[in-house]
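Sat 14:20. Reprocessing the chain from the morning session after the first attempt stalled halfway. Input below, unchanged.
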Amino acid sequence: MSEDELAAIRAKKMAEMQQQAVYQEEEVRRREQENAQIHMLIMQILEPEARERLNTIRLTKPDFARAIEQQLISLAQSGRLQSKITDEQFKAILQQVTPERRNINIRRK
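Finished this time. Tokens:
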């Protein structure tokens, strides 16, 4: 390979890497905007105590917390929420959404 070919390959590779870096930056920025919008909506939907409970859930089960947030946002956007959700109401919602646990008993003979 000649010097010119190597330089062309390097330039092409560098351009691809720069384009990928720009794409990644845009993706991170878009996710941050989405998270900020979700956070603002949750602040409007939940009372402070209920938000604290949601944050605690987020620490242990992030996917479950994300699903709850999406459900709350869809309820609010559809107009089915008339006021902010209190901690007691949030507990009731969580009990409805949380699947029942099955008790498994092991008996030794």
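The radius of gyration is 24 Å.
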